[in-house]
Structure formats: C-alpha cells, structure tokens
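queue> holo job accepted (S-adenosylmethionine)
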Amino acid sequence: MCKLCNLNPARAEAFAERMIVSLNEGSLMLMVSIGHRIGLFDTMSQMEAATSNEIAEATGLQERYVREWLGAMVTGCIVEASRETDSEELRYQLPAEHAAFLTREAGADNIGVFAQYISVLGYVEDDIVRCFQEGGGVSYERYNRFHEVMREDSGLAVVSLLLSDVLPLVPGIQQRLERGIRVMDIGCGSGRALNLMAQHYPESIFVGYDLCADPLETARREAQRRGLTNIHFEQRDLTHYAPEDTFDFITAFDAIHDQARPDHVLRSVYQSLSNDGHFLMVDINASSDVTQNVDHPVGTLLYTISTMHCMTVSLAQDGMGLGAMWGREKARVMLNEASFTRIEEHLLEQDFQNRYFVIQK
Ligand SMILES: C[S@@+](CC[C@H](N)C(=O)[O-])C[C@H]1O[C@@H](n2cnc3c(N)ncnc32)[C@H](O)[C@@H]1O
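queue> job finished
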C-alpha cells in the first residue's frame, strides 16, 4: 500500500507549516540560550530602544555577533526593531512583557534558563545516535554544563519556593527542623536546597549525596561561603546504598527518576527513614501514560530531556532507564513496592514542572 498516495492534502499542508514553525522556534531557543548566558536580555531590559552598537557597548560584546543575534530576535518576534527615517540606524527594543520572561530579574519566570537545555542536549547528539543504534547510555562526563544549568533550574522553581511553599506541605517539619533533626538529600547535585535549609535551620544536621564530583564541589564551596558547619556533602553512588544511619527527613529533588536503580534507592530510603519521619520526593509532574501527556505544557521538552539525559544517564550506569516521564502512577507503584503506604501528592501553582509527594512509612 502506498501511504503517501492517499494523504489528506489539507492535513499535510498544515503539518508542513507546523514543521517549519518548529524549525524556527527550535533555532530561536538556541539564540535565547545565548542571550540569557551573556546577559543580553538583562542589559536590553534596562535600555530604551538602542542601536546594535549601543547594545554591544553596553554588554561589552562584539557588535557583529550582537547584530546577527538581533536578526534572530526580531524575526523571532522577541525584540522589536524600528527606525524613524529611512536614513536612520535601526533601533532595537526588548518589550517589558518579554523581559518579564527572559531576564534574571524575572526570577522563577525566566524561560531563558530552560532554553539552555536545548544546547546542553545538542552537545551529546552524536552519543545519543550511537545509543539508538548500539544500546547503552551516555554518562554524566560526556555532558557540557549539565550540572550548571540544573543548578540554575532548581534555583528557580524548588529553591525559591522551598521555605515559603514546599516545606509547609510536610506536616510539622518546620518545627522539627527548628528543634533539630537529621536530614538527607538524595542526588543533591549542587546542593542549593540543602544549603538553604542548613542555613535556615542551624539546629539540624544535613547530609547530601550525589554521584558526580563537580556539583558537589560547588555545593561545598557554597556551604563554606555561607559559613555552615551543620552540613556535609559526599560523593556516593546510591545504586548500592546500604543505609547506615536513620534520618527524620529525606528529600529527593528531581533525583529519583534518573537514578540507575530507583527501586533500590526507594527501598533504602524506606530503611533509612525514622518511624515518624517524612520523605519528600519532588519529581516531574506527568502521567505514566503518554496519551495523557498530549496536553502537557512542556511534554515534548520533557520527553526530549528524558531521552537525551535522564533515561540515558541511568542506562549508562547499567540502570533501569526509568526516564523523567515515569509519571505519578508508576511513582505510586514503585513507592508501594518499596513498602511506603502513606503517600500524599501536591501541586504548586507557581511550579508547572513538578509534583510534590509527601511520604511516610
Ligand atoms: C536532575 S539532577 C537533580 C539535582 C538536584 N537535586 C537539583 O535539584 O538541582 C539528578 C542528580 O542525581 C544524581 N545521580 C544520578 N545517578 C545517581 C546515582 N547513581 N547515585 C547518586 N546520585 C545520582 C546526578 O548526579 C544529579 O546531580
């Protein structure tokens, strides 16, 4: 049967248009990532309409590159360009409504941070192609800037809401942290959440474990900078983690699904948790059923990040390759298999990425 002989021309035309829009939008995100990294959006948000020379001067960047980047910004409808007379030089302006989603001042709304994932993933495309053909996975060392971008990402959603909105989801935890308890963070990365809690709750003791040395170095430097003495970061592969201590509060911020063996890790969490303790598991908010994710606002982005990072880093460790989109249904099954029975789920209005599981023995 000739599939292409029987196509619906209107549907085909609409699809072709959508693909072309996607080509434009995909390339735009590379330019947004660059604009975020080198502060172009931040500077432009403080300027009136300006020429490419004035923008280059204000940012200390090369005018020829700035002007070409502005070409992508103007055709991508992020920056507006105008000239009063034909002979005048073009002036560029970043509208306030756009700056509200592209600048460091925008805080948790800064989409420029997430745009960086496109280039982080592009860096390992050859490795991923090889995995499609031969199997296996891509290990953390192959990535450029993953932990750096992850650090910015977690700073936006989880960390900025941690004290005000996230901890209050866990009954009584703030009072217990004030009195002094033992806390463990699994897959702590650059340790932003843990350092914040350690500073805020000096009577409690905090331990952060992660597989990778680089983010732990960043975490330790930050703890030192804050003068914290109640926190300790340790490089550890949690695949074979055998609990030595008990903890009253265990946290995992976006760190269960890309473990090599999340099933083992969840069982270890159960064994390490004190009888009256809480486990806070923050993970991607999605369904385990892809058909339920069609309307997910960032479903395509998350499956892409999963294929090109979360799933593959797990497979690179001979792991399960659970993937970022394991979803709430699968999460509940795995928590039950780890012996947890008391599981509450929460969503936060300000965080469109994550689901907050508050779990007890
Ligand atoms: C998506 S990042 C989240 C990092 C951090 N919790 C945050 O929110 O910024 C997942 C983390 O899990 C860590 N990880 C992955 N596999 C691990 C393993 N087998 N043992 C310990 N940590 C692991 C990674 O190194 C990475 O830092």
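queue> The CA atoms of residues 238 and 265 lie 7 Å apart.
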